[in-house]
């Protein structure tokens, strides 16, 4: 049976059981029926669970075709009729090459040969691949004629019209109705400042209900002032330490926390009774020549204070002024 006559998705394909498992089929069927009865009695059916419980259909590598025939009729092609195959479509030369060839050979070929060439160009234009590429047939170029004085006159009239600015057609707003100020009494009333009435508190008077009112026990208890024990604030010195505190033994963690924090680079603490006492070795020590040289004060040349401030150096006496310095030295206006 041909592939065109069969429809693969119309019938489900069942996998055949192997030969050595056919003897267990009746026992497996009985157990399945029992399990199905138990399942129907014990479990609630849900659509989603039943959909997930269905096994996925395994499609083998080679499957037999279904005998069901398609509804679409089969086209019969005769042996004499030629098919439009892919190779035939690709065999046509490109339209651009044919057009260039036609341009070169237009004067050399006979008209009969040019007819055949036009037929090949038409076929290549109507092929599948040229239609997919959207190749358009060649168009004849029209000669551009020169304009006369009448054409230029028409053109100038159109240009003058287009050069004018566009008119803005604004809608005329209707005049809003107005009244004279003399007739507007409401505006005068609204223009006056707002007057606020001052609320006076009424004088407090003892009413009959307030005179006959009896306070409850809870109200009386809340009305009393709080009395605090003053004896706890002032204690006699020395303060007595309870026995439980004296007998208490600190834990290891408490002892660890009570120790001072050790920093990485701690300065050595001077634990001497008198830190300024000079040791006997320092008194008997003899300084070296280098130490004595370093101990002597350095002498600096004082350039600020001069012995003769008005003295001129020999280099200044020999110096010659430049013409630019002479120009700058002259007073203004000279």
TrEMBL record:
Basic and acidic residues: which segments have biased composition? Answer: 290-307
Entry-linked InterPro entries = SPMAP2-like, THEG
Cross-referenced Pfam families: THEG (PF14912)
Top-rank lineage group of the source organism: Eukaryota
User: Which portions of the sequence form the region Disordered?
Assistant: 284-307
Q: Which key words tag this protein in UniProt?
A: Repeat
Q: What is this protein called?
A: Testicular haploid expressed gene protein-like
